Amino acid sequence: MSIQLAFQTAKLRQICESSVSAKRSLGETAARALRTRLADFQAGMSPTDMVDLGFAAFDRGSDIRITISIEGGYAVIATVNNRPEPRLENGQVDWKRVTRLKILSIERANEN
Question: I want to staple 31 with a disulfide (CB 3.0 to 4.6 A). Which of 22, 43, 64, 72 is the partner?
Answer without folding.
Answer: 22
